[in-house]
Amino acid sequence: MNDSDHYNYSADYYNDTVDPHSIFNWRELIPTLVVYGVTFILGLTGNILIIFTTFKYRRMLSVTNVFLSSLASSDLLLIIFCIPVKVAKLFSYTWEMGAVVCKSVHYMQNVSTICSVLTLTAISIERYYAIVHPMKAKYICTISQAKRIILIIWMLSLLLAAPTLKVQIHLPVGLNNEYRWCVRNWDNASIWRFHELYMLCLILIGPFWIMTFSYTLICWEIWKVMERRSVMTSEHALTRYYASVPDEKSAENFIMGETKKLKVKNGRDDTHMVKQVICMLVTVVALFAICWAPLLIDNVLMAYDVLPHLRIGPLKYMSSAFHLMAYFNSCINPVIYGFMSKSFRESFVLALCFSSDIKSSYRGSNYSLRYISRRGSQTRSTSIR
Questions:
Q1: Is residue 51 a contact partner of residue 72, using CB atoms and an 8 Å limit?
Q2: Which residues contact 47 (CB under 8 A, 6 or more apart)?
Q3: 116, 81 in Cβ contact below 8 A?
Q4: Cα 330 to Cα 332: distance, rounded to the nearest angstrom
Q5: CA–CA distance, 269 with 30 (Å, rounded to integer)
Q6: Which terminus of the chain has fewer Cβ atoms in its 10 Å neighbourhood, N or C?
Q7: Nearest Cα residue to 163 out of 189, 188, 198, 119
């Protein structure tokens, strides 16, 4: 479908004797409104709770949680600024909110998305240092350093989203150009195509590979630490008890029994913890890619005329589903990073109950790895939330 087809499509609407603004397909609108509504309520509540609990309770103030607060803030920007405009647009075939809103809403959407992906990438790098290089993390991964990185991320997001202001236009349509659409600049195909490839690389390809690489190294380090912990625990216990048993035969029998007990206990605990951590890390990367890849790839295919600009039938439903998935990512982030953590769950309950007392058991709610340094004498406790 070329540009003339778009204008003809618009003219057909407004040549009709029935006002197109009064015709709505409620069978299509209701599911979309429900998803946007759930995203708005869940995202607003979850992200506000993350920010509130992080800075309300001193024990919750950590480097990772500061990054999560920045992530929650970027998601709130998308939820508060963009979802209401998206919902209003569902009830009109044209754009009636002016050129400023047309450009600004898409700009803020990309600012939020870029900020979110850069924050997710920063979290993966922070966790990599905390687990793989814990001694360096003691000086690199500090709260003050995290705040500086967050400031840089937001400034970069405002800058990197600027091309959207150029490619998004307020397009006149209709017989006498009396109506407007808020669309990409179809007439300047080169800029449009560059913009979509640019967003695909910036939001998906680059960060996805960095996060995959970081979390792969983290998982590998966790397995190595678990093996070292199992060996050192067994050797320590056997040496201690062997020295306390004078009879050689009794000592041999005791050692065999204790070895079996230690192997079973360590095997169960370590396997469970490793599976839990790996599951969370894989979920983080996978859901990010699942939510954003379809929309970004669809935009590229549309820019290169592989798919039509205007969607009818199944393509229309597909496009709507891709947009909903991308927006829904803003409300599942609190679930992934917040509700999977016992410490966050406890803090959420306290916040919702308007309580200022946090349980003293907070420290025990995190899974802690005792990293054995290569020098053999230095250790550092690293939390995985």
A1: yes
A2: 72, 73, 75, 76, 79, 330, 331, 333, 334
A3: no
A4: 6
A5: 47
A6: N
A7: 198
Residue keyed to tokens 């206990």: 265
Q: Determine the 3-state secondary structure of 244 from DSSP.
A: helix
- Euclidean distance between CA atoms 380 and 326, whole angstroms: 38
Write down the residue that tokens 């607060």 correspond to.
Answer: 69
Integer angstrom CA distances of residue 375 from 226, 227, 372: 17, 17, 8
For the packed helices 26-56 and 314-334, what is the interaxial angle rounded to 10 degrees?
20
Model confidence, pTM? 0.77
**Could you tell me how many residues make up the chain?**
385
Q: What is the pLDDT of residues 322-353, one digit of tens each?
A: 988 989 888 887 777 666 766 777 777 777 77
> Which tokens belong to 174?
């209709």
Residue spans of the domains in the chain: they are 3-218+276-384
Tell me the two tokens of residue 201: 């690389």
Cα angle value 60/64/67 (rounded, 5°): 105
Amino acid of residue 69: S
Q: Is 14 exposed, middle or buried (0-12, 13-18, 19+ CB in 10 A)?
A: middle
* Rounded CA separation 168/164 (Å): 6
Give pLDDT, residue 261: 53
Q: How many CB atoms lie within 10 A of CB 235?
A: 11
CATH 1.20.1070.10, domain 3-218+276-384, yes or no: yes
Q: Render pLDDT for 12-27 as a digit per residue (tens, 0 to 9).
A: 444 444 455 556 778 8
76, 47 contact by CB (below 8 A): yes
AA identity, residue 231: V
Give the three-class secondary structure for 14.
Answer: helix
